[in-house]
């Protein structure tokens, strides 16, 4: 899709059609970055977004067990004085 760069005050901008915004899930603020010679616009993700679904997938695979790791150190072998 072609879009023209237009003047917006002292800046420049483009108009993004509503259908594209909805398709990308853009609502409110976005993250804009330059990657090489490309301008990349991404939706801002909420903190921990998707963690609940990921945890359910891990549990369904049976990979959610607690590990009992033993990390011995010198203090474990010395007699403690109180």
Mean of pLDDT: 88
CATH architecture term of the domain at 1-44? Ribbon
Shape: elongated
Top-tier CATH class of the domain at 1-44: Mainly Beta
- Any idea of the CATH topology of the domain at 1-44? Pemi-like Protein 1, Chain: D
Given helix and strand content, the structural type is alpha+beta
Task: Profile the largest sheet.
Answer: 2 strands, antiparallel
Helix run count: 3
Describe it.
This protein is α+β, with helices and mostly antiparallel strands and 82 residues long. 26% of the residues lie in helices and 22% in strands. It is built from three helices and four strands. A hairpin with a 2-residue loop joins strand 3 and strand 4 (38-43). The longest helix has 10 residues, at 51-60. The termini are far apart.
In short:
With 82 residues, the chain is an alpha+beta fold. The protein is built from three helices and four strands.
Question: What is the element layout, followed by pairings?
Answer:
Layout (H helix, E strand, L loop, with lengths): L5 E3 L2 E3 L4 H7 L5 E6 L2 E6 L7 H10 L13 H4 L5
Structure keywords:
82 residues, alpha+beta, Pemi-like Protein 1, Chain: D, two-stranded antiparallel sheet, 3 helices, 22% strand
